[in-house]
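Quick one, probably user error.
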């Protein structure tokens, strides 16, 4: 009688091939490898977890995949963690990928960035208008018209221009000189001559604030040192925008929006079957707006895969009450790490949903159990809120919709850095 042969344990590394997708770990119950394919990534991922729960570590699984699979990678870190810069920089070097960083808090070691490298006058006008809040429609329209004209003149006069030189040349007298030089139509010159200078001074002041800031010089074009998003995609390189919400909350928000609007223009110029681009938004609430979610939604058909990470759902409510719903509608994969807040945990639990199970209820009287009972059909949370509150560092609950609804409990794997 021969002994039954023990099956050989499957070595995970031998079944996950580079190019398969983002490998997050193994399902605690089934042992199945959790790999998010390109198709699933393209349906976007939402990741939430309180500080220290392991979010950034999870993000690095996505980064590793982009690096090993030669996928262009754009990361925006709202908090501006210096470790993030260092780790991504060395990982990119290990994978022989071109790496650029734009850093608000470390301008001496930052690349420059030209947020005006992609887009026509109207797109660029919208991009710049979004940098400030306009309460008075009268001034808003005035500013819009002026900006659009200025951008049209700049486009005619120069092949490319950067934010620094644009804002510098925005004063009415400078613009008039430019209009004369390129022989702009009479109507343009008349408009510039008669413009209400006080009416547009608000616009000019607001924009000038950016280029006069501590990081203002980073918006000038320096050959070989300037980040241009169309180039990032073409050369499949890696770029990190390291914002700093703690020390520079306003700039972080503005810059985040500038980058998103730039990305939007880049995405709209892509063709349907262009290869995947991975975009990661860590500490997303710092620069979140409906506009960002709108972009994420539309970018799907342009080959973008987005990972949106934030501490909690409540963080999004603070920005905009409609944001949470929009994000949850647009992200088909949900990665949940520890939540401290009971309400947040319960809401996530509800999103994952319930399952129907049989429950035995027992009858008791004043002497104890009667031995009688009934079997009832009840709905229970698939993942109970307490379970979300008790997740350890690195542990996660993953809810997927692609290709079918599936829930995993797992410990996220630590990648080699
Ligand atoms: N999956 C994991 N396995 C082991 N340690 C982890 C894991 N995820 C995070 N850690 C450790 O926990 C700490 C916090 O992780 P981090 O990813 O920075 O959290 P967060 O971004 O949510 O604040 C780090 O020191 C990290 O090494
Ligand atoms: Mg983090």
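Nope, works fine. Designed sequence:
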């Amino acid at each position: 009688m021969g002994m039954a042969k023990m099956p050989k344990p499957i070595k995970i590394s031998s079944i996950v091939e580079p190019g398969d997708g983002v490998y997050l770990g193994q399902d605690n119950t089934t042992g199945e490898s959790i790999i998010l394919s390109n198709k699933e990534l393209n349906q976007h991922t939402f990741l939430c977890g309180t500080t220290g729960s392991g979010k950034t570590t999870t993000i690095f699984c996505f980064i590793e995949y982009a690096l090993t699979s030669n996928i262009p990678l754009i990361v925006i870190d709202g908090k501006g963690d210096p470790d993030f810069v260092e780790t991504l920089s060395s990982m990119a070097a290990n994978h022989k990928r071109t790496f650029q960083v734009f850093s608000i808090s470390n301008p001496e070691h930052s690349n420059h960035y030209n947020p005006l490298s992609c887009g026509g006058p109207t797109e660029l006008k919208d991009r710049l208008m979004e940098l400030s809040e306009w309460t008075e429609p009268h001034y808003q329209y005035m500013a819009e018209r002026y900006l659009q004209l200025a951008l049209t003149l700049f486009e005619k006069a120069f092949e490319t221009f950067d934010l620094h030189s644009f804002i510098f040349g925005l004063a009415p007298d400078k613009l008039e000189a430019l209009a004369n030089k390129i022989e702009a139509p009479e109507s343009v010159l008349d408009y510039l001559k008669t413009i209400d200078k006080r009416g547009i001074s608000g616009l000019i002041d607001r924009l000038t604030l950016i280029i006069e800031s501590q990081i203002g010089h980073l918006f000038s074009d320096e050959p070989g040192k300037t980040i241009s998003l169309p180039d990032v995609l073409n050369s499949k390189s890696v770029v990190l925008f390291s914002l700093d919400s703690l020390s520079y909350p306003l700039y972080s928000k503005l810059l985040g929006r500038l980058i998103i609007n730039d990305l939007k223009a880049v995405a709209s110029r892509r063709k349907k079957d262009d290869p995947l681009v991975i975009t990661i938004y860590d500490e997303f609430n710092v620069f979140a707006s409906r506009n960002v979610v709108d972009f994420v939604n539309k970018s799907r058909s342009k080959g973008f895969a987005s990972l949106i990470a934030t501490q909690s759902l409540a963080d999004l409510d603070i920005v905009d009450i409609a944001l949470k719903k929009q994000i949850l509608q647009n992200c088909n994969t949900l990665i949940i790490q520890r939540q401290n807040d009971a309400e947040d945990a319960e809401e996530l639990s509800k999103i994952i949903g319930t399952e129907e199970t049989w429950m035995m209820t027992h009858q008791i009287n004043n002497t104890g159990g009667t031995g009688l009972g009934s079997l009832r059909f009840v709905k229970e949370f698939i993942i109970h809120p307490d379970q979300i509150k008790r997740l350890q560092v690195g542990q996660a609950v993953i809810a997927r919709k692609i290709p079918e609804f599936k829930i995993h409990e797992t410990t996220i794997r630590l990648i080699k850095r």
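Residues 49, 51-57, 393-394, 411-412, 414 surround adenosine-5'-diphosphate (ligand 1) (CB under 6 Å).
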